[in-house]
Design goal:
Blueprint: E1 2-5, E2 8-11, H1 14-21, H2 42-47, H3 58-67, H4 73-88, H5 115-129, H6 143-153, H7 173-185, H8 213-218, H9 222-253, H10 258-274, H11 288-310, H12 315-373, H13 375-387
Antiparallel strand pairs: 1-2
Helix pairs in contact: 1-5, 1-6, 3-4, 3-13, 4-13, 9-10, 10-12, 11-12
């Protein structure tokens, strides 16, 4: 299948669906599976959840998914219906499309179904039945895939989003709406240039965080620097989120492991240093012992040779030197005390920063836990709202 956007042709294949949505590719086609055997009561049992509803709608399925506590066959079928209506094919009358359920039984390996080809089949079928500019014709095909496919392949002046796979993880609803509004106001929908063919780079380490020698030769313009810095900041944010999530999981599973606590403290320090005022984002602590030794060496280098030299003078001069030496010693003691006071103030400031960073980290962990608890509800609400 080929999509024509203002003279620019984009070829759509099963791999395109996989890149955009990240759903399983390959395996058995849905329509090639055997339909329900006569003695299978799975469908009847599933419908018992909606015995109070004359018409099964997505909102009812969403409420059951959120309230369920068991990942049984009914949960799988509920999620499957939600997925099909949101990403494959819905209906124009508000009813749920339950056609795929006729091929799903207790023995069906749902993960082995070629869902990418099914989305592609739905796209072709719904496109052929859709009549543009008709008040009575509605497109009920995979709109989410088409939006992501457009956003990933057509360059936009509105904003820059990192091209990763699957695309659905990087183009959130807010960015889609922002781009849509921008292109409508500027009358630039579909007028952007085609993006270069996507090359799947290794995600580990986020290569944008490390600049190679070849990259340095390419940074000759303001645009090049802006692009590079933007990509590095995006990579840094993703790495921080991944690290925080991985640490939380590790500490939950292995609370007795001290090394994970050490990693957590380092992460807390980094977050705290980022939020401090000033230009410097990362401030590496100085070694106080080395600093003190260095100051003592400076004091000795500045005073001792002078005293040794003057001690070789006559006795009359020695008395004055001793007085100067006593004076220098007192001044040195006063200076050391002043430095000790400053060091104590610095220590107190560091302790206060550590406490603030720890409090911030605990607050973020509480927010993260709350978000995790409501994640399923948010995902389902977002899917249903976009479909409806």
């Amino acid at each position: 299948m080929v999509i024509d956007i203002e003279g620019k042709e984009l070829k759509v294949i099963a791999e395109s669906v996989h890149d955009m949505l990240g759903i399983p590719i390959g395996g058995t086609k849905l329509t090639q599976l055997d339909q329900w055997p006569k003695d299978d009561t799975s469908y009847d049992e599933w419908k018992q959840q909606f015995k109070k509803d004359s018409i099964i709608r997505l909102s009812a399925i969403k409420n059951i998914i959120v309230s369920t506590t068991q990942a049984d066959l009914n949960f799988k079928l509920n999620f499957l219906v939600l997925f099909v209506n949101a990403f494959c094919e819905s209906t124009s009358m508000g009813r749920c499309n339950m056609f795929p359920l006729s091929y799903i039984s207790r023995k069906t390996d749902i993960n082995n179904i070629d869902w990418c080809n099914y989305v592609l089949d739905c796209l072709v079928r719904t496109k052929n039945s859709y009549i543009p500019y008709s008040d009575t014709s509605f497109f009920v095909g995979p709109s989410a895939f088409l939006v992501l496919f457009y956003a990933d392949n057509i360059h936009s002046e509105a904003l820059t989003v990192t091209r990763k796979r699957p695309t659905i993880c990087y183009w959130i609803s807010e960015k889609i709406r922002y781009r849509e509004t921008f292109e409508q106001e500027k009358c630039k929908f579909g007028l952007g240039e085609l993006n270069e063919e996507f090359v799947n780079e290794q995600d580990e380490g986020d290569t944008y965080l490390e600049e190679s020698d070849s990259d340095k030769d390419e940074d000759h313009s303001v645009e090049a620097y802006e692009s590079k810095i933007s990509k590095m900041l995006n990579s840094f944010e993703r790495m921080k989120e991944k690290l925080n999530s991985k640490l939380n999981n590790a500490i939950t599973k292995f609370p007795e492991k001290e090394s994970f606590r050490i990693f957590e403290e380092k992460m807390t320090n980094i977050i705290g240093e980022e939020k401090t005022e000033g230009i410097t984002i990362f401030e590496f602590p100085k070694n106080e012992d080395d600093e003190g030794n260095h100051e003592e060496e400076n004091d000795n280098d500045g005073s001792q040779p002078e005293v040794d030299y003057l001690l070789d003078s006559n006795e009359a001069g020695n008395e004055g030197i001793n007085n100067d030496g006593d004076k220098n010693q007192k001044e040195g003691e006063t200076e050391v005390k002043g430095k000790d006071g400053k060091n104590n103030e610095n220590d107190n400031d560091e302790e206060k920063k550590d406490d603030d960073a720890e409090e911030t980290n605990n607050h973020e962990e509480t927010i993260q836990q709350t978000e995790n608890e409501n994640l399923l509800d948010k995902v389902v609400d977002n899917i249903v709202d976009n479909v409806l």
